[in-house]
Amino acid sequence: xxxxFGQLFRVTTFGESHGGGVGVVIDGCPPxxxxxxxxxxxxxxxxxxxxSKITTQRKEEDRCKILSGVFAGKTLGTPIAVLVHNxxxxxxxxxxxxxxxxxxxxxxxxxxxxxxxxxxxGGRASARETIGRVAAGAVAKKxxxxxxxxxxxxxxxxxxxxxxxxxxxxxxxxKDVDRNVVRCPDSAAAKRMEALIERIHDEGDSVVGVIECxxxxxxxxxxxxxxxxxEADLAKAMLSLPATKGFEIGSGFGATRxxxxxxxxxxxxxxxxxRTATNNSGGVQGGISNGEEIYFRVGFKPTATIGRKQRTVTxxxxxxxxxxxxxxxxxxxPRAVPIVEAMAAIVLCDHALRQMALGSRDRPx
Amino acid sequence: xxxxFGQLFRVTTFGESHGGGVGVVIDGCPPxxxxxxxxxxxxxxxxxxxxSKITTQRKEEDRCKILSGVFAGKTLGTPIAVLVHNxxxxxxxxxxxxxxxxxxxxxxxxxxxxxxxxxxxGGRASARETIGRVAAGAVAKKxxxxxxxxxxxxxxxxxxxxxxxxxxxxxxxxKDVDRNVVRCPDSAAAKRMEALIERIHDEGDSVVGVIECxxxxxxxxxxxxxxxxxEADLAKAMLSLPATKGFEIGSGFGATRxxxxxxxxxxxxxxxxxRTATNNSGGVQGGISNGEEIYFRVGFKPTATIGRKQRTVTxxxxxxxxxxxxxxxxxxxPRAVPIVEAMAAIVLCDHALRQMALGSRDRPx
Amino acid sequence: xxxxFGQLFRVTTFGESHGGGVGVVIDGCPPxxxxxxxxxxxxxxxxxxxxSKITTQRKEEDRCKILSGVFAGKTLGTPIAVLVHNxxxxxxxxxxxxxxxxxxxxxxxxxxxxxxxxxxxGGRASARETIGRVAAGAVAKKxxxxxxxxxxxxxxxxxxxxxxxxxxxxxxxxKDVDRNVVRCPDSAAAKRMEALIERIHDEGDSVVGVIECxxxxxxxxxxxxxxxxxEADLAKAMLSLPATKGFEIGSGFGATRxxxxxxxxxxxxxxxxxRTATNNSGGVQGGISNGEEIYFRVGFKPTATIGRKQRTVTxxxxxxxxxxxxxxxxxxxPRAVPIVEAMAAIVLCDHALRQMALGSRDRPx
Amino acid sequence: xxxxFGQLFRVTTFGESHGGGVGVVIDGCPPxxxxxxxxxxxxxxxxxxxxSKITTQRKEEDRCKILSGVFAGKTLGTPIAVLVHNxxxxxxxxxxxxxxxxxxxxxxxxxxxxxxxxxxxGGRASARETIGRVAAGAVAKKxxxxxxxxxxxxxxxxxxxxxxxxxxxxxxxxKDVDRNVVRCPDSAAAKRMEALIERIHDEGDSVVGVIECxxxxxxxxxxxxxxxxxEADLAKAMLSLPATKGFEIGSGFGATRxxxxxxxxxxxxxxxxxRTATNNSGGVQGGISNGEEIYFRVGFKPTATIGRKQRTVTxxxxxxxxxxxxxxxxxxxPRAVPIVEAMAAIVLCDHALRQMALGSRDRPx
Lengths: 365, 365, 365, 365
Prior knowledge:
Four copies of one chain form a homotetramer.
Chain A: E1 4-5, E2 10-14, E3 21-27, H1 37-47, E4 64-68, E5 70-71, E6 74-75, E7 80-85, H2 95-99, H3 107-114, H4 130-147, E8 152-160, E9 163-164, H5 174-177, H6 187-202, E10 209-216, H7 230-239, E11 244-249, H8 260-263, E12 267-270, E13 273-276, E14 284-285, E15 288-289, E16 294-300, E17 310-313, E18 319-322, H9 333-357
Antiparallel strand pairs in A: 1-2, 2-3, 3-7, 4-7, 5-6, 8-9, 8-10, 10-16, 11-16, 12-13, 14-15, 17-18
Helix pairs in contact in A: 1-4, 1-9, 4-9, 7-9
């Protein structure tokens, strides 16, 4: 259970890190949208391992194949299934973790919940699962671009460990983000981040930080008050990503040290529109978008797989030690950037379709 | 849309702050659970206004009535409907806000989304909506207590503005929380918090902070990997509460400044069980509970309704000023404590039932 | 579980026949629709007991109260809760059925499923549960009338036992239906049906038949192929009604004796539109409406509560006999007519909103 | 939308008749169930074309591949994705139907709903979509067999056009069904049916009938009262199959000609259990299984694709004629038998898991 996300734009992912493959079925995509494997592949390539020395050196080609739902380059309105085959596994690489629970991995909890797990790699808890999300995000971005011509979603690294970037949130563009391997648009900070990641990696350790995401061009009115508030669905989307520990929107935890008179966003008229003078709300009020920039931050925990020797126990309840072998990400953030964007786009696309169902433009009365 | 929460323990709230009443329909409650209006009322009384001078002075009796689903003191397995009638409205109190959008309220976004709103009080965006959640939370707590005898959920204020409490998270009990009006178990900090709230209230302003919540007695195995991770559903639950801006579980944003070797929770044998030596994970690994304490923090924004004069615009797009009249909460946190507990219990109860569906104890194979 | 119906127009009913009351929460109703208690009451009055001597003589006033979701006569887009209070129970009337399972009632299955049941009257299995459906149906009809000006739903009795009415399906109107107490627009047949019902009632027995329902003014394009076909959702809606045993759409079981060349509906141009020359399809092809009349039939079983003595067993597994006392419906069909209409309207309204989400009129590409 | 079925055992199908392939994602399957491609293939082979001269002569190999959710022959509790590749299309075979709407097919309604359709073969409306259902049904049957050792589902042809079989419903077994190509366990009737199908096929026409399905070994207590009654979900499942026009459970439409005293199933003690003396209820009372055999019938319409010339119109609204070329099923029923079984198993498996969530065996109180 729990492998489907969304009400109208419904994304179901499947697949373990080893076995036949990973993929996604997207139900609820409107018809007649241009979409191609090339567009989806472009997003997948941004999350692919092996892009630089600060991410894992594993070579995974991750070529996607659209199995259904698209005909002559256009969506049919039927489910879009996208599949990425897995590479052949070398089971002998995983014999140790078949017996020993990796600390802060999902080995122990899966074993307890299900009484069985695919111990080859991360199984279902592997970051490979996010391939399906990124593919669905590519479709969601396309739909949002058609519905709202100003739509744009840009995520980027704002902090690695103690290094904090200075970024003009309202100006940053994807090309600024992809200019360096850290995916941090502040070049000076990015350099320091890269050096830090390399140094800590050399010490057999991992490091992490914060991703910020800004969404522009969303009209007022998206989001359902009460349980399906826009920020609630974004929070769920982000905390459903592997290794995330925190979410904040707009002023976030900073709001806890502000007074009402400081925090409130006064309304004003600007260019003939009702706008807010400040944007502590992060573009959402009462769970509904207000037409301002939507922005939020996601805090991650450092990669659990590290070279250093760690204490653990075995399935047969013996104490043991474990040191990761092979290649792994010293810092997941650069590859997590497109995943955060994908989940943001999926949430917003779902709410855009929900708003259409309300008859936003053809209101019945 | 969006007024239902949960997959198997399904909570649907209804009602505006003015009109007939507010309430909840709870579908999926197992049969033969003892439940009474008295038990529900006890939780409702904790969130009621008028309890102290640091919360709103409005007198709302909020007597609940169980309309269905309970027979001779026991649940039937059928929907439990709980209703709290509203007091008569004085529409003339709201004529100004009928015209002027209150800054950082949901007035503008509701008006834009729906083209109509109940301008008497907060309408559907009122905190009165949470009455239904608290009633459902009382039922959820009862179910969890029966399923897991060690179950306990305790929320409390850990920070107001710059004042930070010192609390032994693993020892704190509800009676410690309810000992003072701030609902902060650190008495010394609570005194300073109370003084701060009063002072800021006298200045016609509002102030806020952070609530922490700890859940004990949850066995390993609850939570669905991928989208319905336990932390994802908790994050959604918390961000669906009015005035919340941030959520973090376990180490939270603090994790972003830790290395993998510091953050990982080593497994060890303790009292014959597999346990973690530390609990940076916050009781959840790979989206599934690991049997340790589950704890998280929720950051709020200060009450938008303040006595000070603020800039805004009217429905007819004229710039204007607005100063709140009447009684409102200078600090929402004390009343939010039982609401946070309620939503935590609802999430955990839903996942407990989902785990039963998997045949946790009667596994088919 | 299972007390909610619909994807976007979501109807949740609650309540047992005895206890506080019965009602409904309607989520997903578009805003700014005119709706009043009077309009809902008009539909409720059509299903109310005590209308004639061929239905139960119980007097139930069934006055509805809108608790939320409507402001100044218009829907807010928030959940509409409607409540009908129950009359005080006389528990002593039910002491016998508290012990003995009524044949072909839900007593035994509820007891087995839940280990508990409200034995006062039908409990949750009572036909009173349909009050919430009829209230929601009134709202659904209103929405459909606004979306599709030609929309009309008319159900009527076509058969009672061996008496079969002759009805011009494409011409029949609600006023023709409500002209007699049987709700059969063929007056001559209605007279014979009425006499038959009375005679069988005098014999301490019950009798039943078939209701047909025709829906006009639905444009082509409603219905989701695969699982949520329009006929699949209609079938579920009808088989979810108490005492239903069969459903057929268009040619129905008659199709099983036709050849493809007889059954196929040839397309032709008529008044500038693509139409079908015949309508064996019943207005639905591949699960999607084709713009023709939608029509279907629902077969009921005779009322299980009869005056005659019947064999049964007690909760303590003793064989026993039981004869119903008090007032009950000798024939449920006349009162079931508005319920069938309500469920048809709920299904179609849900699909109309789903089609809007697809961007029917504002197709994104 | 509408490509997912079930609440806890969730089946999502994807794929058009032409393009990459068709398949299914099954979410909610309990862990540690033995399942293999061989078992799934066995069920798929029963629905495969080309089995006899009374079904289509098309050769489709339909080899299934499990992509995920199974490890070392056992389910993991994660989504099971099953894929069947499509054969290469010959688009030139479909150029005529790309322009002309086939009568009583879904061409016109898809075109109207989506403004686009895959005109190669049936597209999403093709019976190939049921491959995913049959694969999921194989898994559902396996789970039910483990949960309820007496579980058995047997469907069979009871009527073709005017030929009606005589079958002892309570005794019939799968081997009796698969003994002849018609899948009718009455051998004499099967012969006449086969001859009839061949004769009508020679006339360029199609013929059809009724499938009956019996389910044994389901304990009392499955099914959710109100909207998700067992018969309601079965009705939806069956009416969601291509070419179905009617559904009846137990006495079905026959009930409409019975009196209450005839139709009621008296309770009696039998072998120490509460049983019903007759089974007009069809194993379901108040929407919940009562432990008796569940049985129902499904009425189909004749295959729309026939060799005879038919009237129709083109996309550009010109009147035209159309005669099907190529190979098609003169009678769909033999191949529909395993599909009916699959959908029945999916519904019952979903309700079995829902009942476990209620704590059937570990009731909390």
